[in-house]
From TrEMBL:
<dbReference type="GO" id="GO:0035999">
    <property type="term" value="P:tetrahydrofolate interconversion"/>
</dbReference>
<dbReference type="GO" id="GO:0009086">
    <property type="term" value="P:methionine biosynthetic process"/>
</dbReference>
<dbReference type="GO" id="GO:0004477">
    <property type="term" value="F:methenyltetrahydrofolate cyclohydrolase activity"/>
</dbReference>
<dbReference type="InterPro" id="IPR020631">
    <property type="entry name" value="THF_DH/CycHdrlase_NAD-bd_dom"/>
</dbReference>
<keyword id="KW-0028">Amino-acid biosynthesis</keyword>
<feature type="binding site">
    <location>
        <begin position="165"/>
        <end position="167"/>
    </location>
    <ligand>
        <name>NADP(+)</name>
    </ligand>
</feature>
<dbReference type="GO" id="GO:0000105">
    <property type="term" value="P:L-histidine biosynthetic process"/>
</dbReference>
<keyword id="KW-0378">Hydrolase</keyword>
<feature type="domain" description="Tetrahydrofolate dehydrogenase/cyclohydrolase NAD(P)-binding">
    <location>
        <begin position="139"/>
        <end position="281"/>
    </location>
</feature>
<keyword id="KW-0521">NADP</keyword>
<comment type="similarity">
    <text>Belongs to the tetrahydrofolate dehydrogenase/cyclohydrolase family.</text>
</comment>
<dbReference type="Pfam" id="PF02882">
    <property type="entry name" value="THF_DHG_CYH_C"/>
</dbReference>
<comment type="subunit">
    <text>Homodimer.</text>
</comment>
<keyword id="KW-0560">Oxidoreductase</keyword>
<dbReference type="InterPro" id="IPR020867">
    <property type="entry name" value="THF_DH/CycHdrlase_CS"/>
</dbReference>
<dbReference type="Pfam" id="PF00763">
    <property type="entry name" value="THF_DHG_CYH"/>
</dbReference>
<protein>
    <recommendedName>
        <fullName>Bifunctional protein FolD</fullName>
        <ecNumber>1.5.1.5</ecNumber>
        <ecNumber>3.5.4.9</ecNumber>
    </recommendedName>
</protein>
Length: 285
């Protein structure tokens, strides 16, 4: 048996095409969706992602700009900029690229973004809304994964799901979304005693650990759906996920590749959240 591959790149393209009409409608009403991405420092990987985000917006007729600060910038300068963008009616989404340099108080910066413009879904108000089951902005990566389940016709209700990783950005919101969809959810992490015991009984495994090829075929139940959220750069420059793709391909029922899996979907859902923000502001949602 060989697993069916859920093609994130193709799904991302399909969704982005479908967004164009919404962007056009909004623009005609004087609400062209606008996203600002703030980048502090010059991490090369972050620069690639930020460029992909900005270009993704522009390609479907949205407005987007990036603001880049030196890595030593004073936090107050960034907070002042966020306050200015919060008040700017032409901007619907504000994203501060993470991680921030160590002298930053990440939580303080994220809370400074107006909840209505928090297209990452990291603000406490949006985290709370998601956990109460009435989400406003869903964090882009887990949101993209839910769309991939939809595309793969994965019915989550009653399924055993294991999330590996407990970050605020992926693991926790992913677990919330799976719970809300009716799955029985186990969240594993670095302190979990017998990881394989958990993953082997799972119908769905979502790997978000940040360790290259960490999930191997022997950890997977035959026929399971395996979602790879990891993006690791190997010494030879190639990208690889948290899942040993070749090893799991023969065991899994469905699997996502890296690159071309969850990554492009993350950016797509960022566009979706920004369009949603503009639609709310325009009163058409
Ligand atoms: N506030 C904030 N929000 C984020 O959403 C956020 C962040 N900070 N910090 C960094 C991570 C990482 N991230 C990725 C998005 C797309 C790809 C992506 O499109 N990857 C391509 C490959 C890109 C390449 O070639 O490097 C793929 O998987 O096919 C990867 C990583 C968003 N993040």
């Amino acid at each position: 048996m060989t697993a069916q591959i859920i093609d994130g790149k193709a799904l991302a393209e399909e969704l982005r095409q479908s967004f164009k009409a919404r962007v056009e409608t909004l623009t005609a009403k004087g609400h062209q969706p606008g996203l600002v991405v703030i980048l502090v420092g010059e991490d090369p990987a972050s620069q690639v992602y930020v460029k992909n985000k900005v270009n993704g917006c522009l390609a479907i007729g949205m407005h987007s700009e990036k603001i880049v600060y030196d890595k030593d910038v004073d936090q107050q300068v960034v907070l002042d900029k966020i306050a200015e963008l919060n008040a700017d009616p032409s901007i619907h989404g504000i994203l501060v690229q993470l991680p921030l340099p160590r002298h930053f108080d990440e939580e303080k910066v994220l809370e400074a973004i107006s909840a209505e413009k928090d297209v990452d879904g990291f603000h406490a108000e949006n985290v709370g809304a998601l956990s109460q089951g009435s989400p406003r902005f869903i964090p882009c990566t887990p949101y993209g994964v839910m769309k991939m389940f939809e595309k793969g016709n994965v019915d989550l209700s009653g399924q055993e799901a294991v999330v590996i990783g407990r970050s605020n950005i992926v693991g926790k919101p992913m677990a919330m979304l799976l719970i809300n969809a009716g799955a029985t959810v186990t969240v594993c992490h670095s302190k979990t005693r017998d990881l394989k015991f958990h993953t082997r009984r799972a119908d769905i495994v979502v790997a978000a650990v940040g360790k290259p090829k960490f999930v191997t075929g022997d950890m997977i139940k035959p026929g399971a759906v395996v979602i790879d959220v990891g993006i690791n750069r190997l010494p030879d420059g190639k990208l690889c996920g948290d899942v040993d793709f070749d090893d799991c391909l023969a065991v899994a029922g469905q699997i996502t590749p890296v690159p071309g899996g969850v990554g492009p979907m993350t950016i797509t859902m960022l566009l979706a959240n920004t369009i949603e923000a503009a639609e709310r502001k325009a009163g058409i949602r």
